[in-house]
């Protein structure tokens, strides 16, 4: 099976690709907001214009060079972040390159960008779907996790994650046996004074555990996501009500670009709401599955709904965008804690 697979799948791919996607989407929204505030300045003299697409290409180049030159998961996260920003800054100027008059404000360009992000999201979902890997892939991913041991930074949770991966490989294979032996022999980070990052992780874990030990914590989380969904639904219903004529025209076959934005916002908000409902149904049984659904809902709001809102009201969408970005960070931290609890 190992010899028939050309590409070895990475178990950390989802987190890296999500970081790339969120960084790209964030850079587009933030750069348009910054340009709006500064009245769209031009870099260069009267003869030249330095398009910010070039800065995006430069950031992608830096990400490639770093990825080729260095090793480690931290480096991969940095390259995903830089590459995402670069891609977002690059694709933001697509309007200039699909119009004869180089129109940055070409209205359908936001729709084109949205379509690109939808395709990217679907591709990421397909590539990182849950499925068994080959024995060689489990072995390779275990080796990647051992990089932490070489870097003298592997803790007990990271070793448990590596063992969990290796347990799914062919246990009769000689490489698997040697990796088991190596995992038992590698030094774990000492219990001495931890660094600032490790102290922060420890505080987050302690706070997270205290939160769930509080009486009514599950109910509070449930109501938070119910109210959050209701807030977004009320916002989109308000937009539909104020643009009711446009919505009717859209469904009667006389759609314009502005009509599509309102309907797109409605559809994406409904999808996010359905994902929240799925998360709420899992909250009592499996917090990890519940947060996975909440994460999907937040990604839909961040990558789709906010694009539609930003296209309609420009910088007025910033509050919702920042809220969803912070919420995604919190949910990812909760998923990380729940995953660690399952390993323990």
Notes on the protein architecture:
Helices cover 74% and strands 0% of the residues. The model has no long low-confidence stretch (mean pLDDT 80). Helix 1 (13-37) packs antiparallel against helix 5 (108-127) and helix 5 (108-127) runs antiparallel to helix 14 (287-313). The protein is mostly helical and 344 residues long. It contains 15 helices and no strands. The longest helix has 27 residues, at 287-313.
List the uncertain runs.
none
Q: Note the main sheet.
A: none
Rg to the nearest angstrom?
23 Å
- State the secondary-structure class: mainly alpha
Which descriptor suits the 3D outline? globular
**Beta-strand percentage?**
under 5%
Mean of residue pLDDT values: 80
Ends: how far apart? 31 Å
Helix share bin:
over 70%
Number of domains: 3
Oligomer: single chain
Count helical runs: 15
Q: In sequence order, what are the helices and strands, one letter per element? A: HHHHHHHHHHHHHHH
Extended strand count = 0
Summarize the structure.
This protein is an all-alpha fold. 74% of the residues lie in helices and 0% in strands. The model has no long low-confidence stretch (mean pLDDT 80).
Topology:
Layout: H1 13-37, H2 52-69, H3 73-91, H4 94-97, H5 108-127, H6 135-145, H7 147-150, H8 156-166, H9 174-185, H10 196-213, H11 217-242, H12 244-251, H13 257-282, H14 287-313, H15 318-343
Helix pairs in contact: 1-3, 1-5, 1-14, 2-3, 5-14, 6-8, 8-9, 11-12, 11-13, 12-13, 13-14, 14-15
